Amino acid sequence: MGSxxxxxxxxxxxxxxxxxPQPALxxxxxxxxxxxxxIVHIDMDAFYASVEQRDxxxxxxxxxxxxxxxxxxxxxxxxxxARRYGVKSAMPALRAEKIxxxxxxxxxxxxxxxxxxxxxxxxxxxxTDLVEPLSLNEAYLDVxxxxxxxxxxxxxxxxxxxQIQARxxxxxxxxxxPNKFLAKIASxxxxxxxxxxxxxxxxxxxxxxxxxxxxxGVGKAMYSRLVGMGxxxxxxxxxxxxxxxxxQFGQFGTxxxxxxxxxxxxxxxxxxxxxxxxxxxxxxxxxxxxxxxVPTKAAAERTWVHATKSGHIGRTVVLKLKTSDFKSITxxxxxxxxxxSLEDLNAVALELLERxxxxxxxxxRLVGVGLSNFIDTDHAxxxxxxxxxx
Length: 390
Fold this sequence. Notes:
Blueprint: H1 7-16, H2 22-30, E1 39-44, H3 47-55, E2 64-66, E3 77-78, H4 80-83, H5 93-99, E4 104-106, H6 110-125, E5 131-135, E6 138-142, H7 153-168, E7 172-177, H8 180-187, E8 195-197, H9 203-208, H10 220-228, H11 242-249, H12 251-259, E9 276-287, H13 293-310, E10 313-323, E11 328-333, H14 342-354, E12 364-375, H15 377-380, H16 384-389
Parallel strand pairs: 2-4, 7-8
Antiparallel strand pairs: 1-6, 1-7, 2-3, 5-6, 9-12, 10-11, 10-12
Helix pairs in contact: 6-7, 11-12, 13-14
């Protein structure tokens, strides 16, 4: 989106020639007290599958699915060749095999993926100490001030991508923007092996026609509610005052209002330690307890994929339910051995479901399954069951 330049220089030039849009000018004035940040989001391209294709030349150019084959297995990752058939992460392996019969299934090797991830993080830290990993294959970097003396965030991102390619023979995509949420959206814009830059004066134009479902936190249920309000693009949100969105969505309404205007004050947090990973589903119609088995398994599958991708191993399984009158119920269990497979996680989650003793007339509007109480991988490798499977 234009030639590389520092954000500050770019805005000052625009003001001097009198062409900066009013929203951008206001945003610049609002941030005068604190310099505009330069955030880079790096996302490896089809990471697990790309590592497999790199290490096994016979897999290059072929549809690769990283997953255990079996009735209960789900897809951890898919190469771009497999994605063309519609294969996605968290999809049941049986369905992936059906829609892509030529796929080659490779069991995940997280020890190898973590080793490559550590190489990549060494590159990140050579540019800045403000690195916030999100998973083994992606991270935020605050390069407002960087160690290498590169003038622009774009130059830093390009340098990092080149270093990753040289050191690991893998490609990464990058997003560069004044805040985290825009940088993350941008990194997906020119995948694979691309870079996309959103500068401060370009935020309004970029967001105008962006589908609202691209905003963080807008899942299927939230998107359905927004469509019911006539909102399909970010610009549609501008017809609502903040108080109206807060009345509809509570605290998230405030965030929607801000995101629609390109505002995200969340800082890159290098010391951030994730305490839990979970997945929830809100139903269109309230369900009875006996109807929750399938959605509970589905939530467990999504949680398992997220946990394995981020390299987290949780000791505690948490089941969350919300009744039709919005009463929240949680049950948790810490087995003697950490869940080491989706089957293990499903078993514990369903046991927790059986512990719900509310009246049979109770209806439920939400179910969620989570993992918490994380342990390090060295400790996990000492567990016989987990060691055998990984």
